[in-house]
Amino acid sequence: MFSLSNVIRPHILTLTPYASARDEYSGKEGTFLDANENPYGSVISGNYNRYPDPYQAAVKEKLGEIKGVRPAQIFLGNGSDEAIDLVIRATCEPQKDNILILPPTYGMYKVCADVQNIEVKQVPLTPDFQVDTKKVLETADKHTKIIWICSPNNPSGNIIERNAILHILDNFKTGLVVVDEAYIDFATEDSFTKLLDTYPNLVVLQTFSKAWGLAALRLGMAFASDEFIKILNKIKYPYNLNGVTQKLLYAALGKENKKDKYVKQILKERKRLHKKLSELSIVKHIYPSDSNQLLVKFTDANALFHFLIEQKVITRNRSNVILCEDCIRISIGTQKENDTLLKALKKY
Ligand code: PMP
């Protein structure tokens, strides 16, 4: 049986969150003399002088409808990087607890753990970038508070088999299973958000930085049980999502069709780029992708990466990363950008 109170750091359970005077008054109209703001206005045009809603109620209401979850199951952060950091801070006691990651994977799980002096256990993915569930469950111990599963995975791009994730959710009950779905909009698989009511040990991360095209706004989501979201809200900075971002997000949520159109365009380009790359003799392998990136094995990735930089084509050199020897990760660009890449590769 999973019990959240066994997973949260004991002192965090006893903390009282920062409370604003506006917690006592939810009206929009009134004489607000509680937050030491400038009552006259802002030094630039626009009304930025009042603090934003710390609970982001309006955007969560709208987002909940789109995602099929309740507002109480949503945490919004300054990028999903904020959620990654907070999930670790909520659960892991430094120098006692550990997290388990499945390399090659997104770098911030380890970075955030390292900053907090938290041990990082590693169980590499299989050569086809799937999860060795037996090894994962054997490696997790009583101090393992989080197993991180990135699906579709970065940098390999592939979705992780659903049954593998379900097996871990069913068998790891002493900590959280975080499924990072930053690239889910590009995949055909269903999101794990549908299983939130079945698995209290499940946390799903998503982001507005990829398909939605809002990377500059820094907007990430965590979906989990009401109880765990309460904990995240308790330890976040009160105004972690600024007012401008909340307003822009509200507008963006009405433009899901445009996001879907972008996804279609990117998937079409991924297919074309895949075909064109496969015709080049320097390309040794292109890994299957369910995201907006292609992991490509070349004859000499290091030298090629630097040649591309000289050509002002910037890719991600992954050749020193486990299971990615001689690989470069390529984000799917516009048709023109992809043609520029292909032209540079032909020049090499
Ligand atoms: N998770 C994965 C798998 C990512 O690749 C990234 C960004 N590259 C993030 C999370 C962080 O995204 P955000 O911009 O929301 O912080």
Describe it.
With 348 residues, this protein is α/β, with parallel strands linked by helices. It has 2 domains: 252 residues, 3-Layer(aba) Sandwich (Aspartate Aminotransferase, domain 2), CATH 3.40.640; 91 residues, Aspartate Aminotransferase, domain 1 (Alpha-Beta Complex). It is built from 11 helices and 11 strands. It has a 7-stranded mixed beta sheet, sandwiched between helices. Strands 8-9-11-10 form a 4-stranded antiparallel beta sheet, covered by helices on one side. Helix 4 links the parallel strand 2 and strand 3. Helix 2 runs parallel beside helix 8 and helix 9 runs parallel beside helix 11. The longest helix has 23 residues. The radius of gyration is 22 Å and the shape is globular. The termini are far apart. The mean pLDDT is 97. The structure holds 4'-deoxy-4'-aminopyridoxal-5'-phosphate (PMP). 4'-deoxy-4'-aminopyridoxal-5'-phosphate (PMP) binds next to helix 3. Pfam families: Aminotran_1_2 (PF00155). This is Histidinol-phosphate aminotransferase. GO terms for molecular function: histidinol-phosphate transaminase activity. It comes from Emticicia aquatica. InterPro entries: Aminotrans_II_pyridoxalP_BS, Aminotransferase_I/II_large, HisP_aminotrans, PyrdxlP-dep_Trfase, PyrdxlP-dep_Trfase_major, PyrdxlP-dep_Trfase_small.
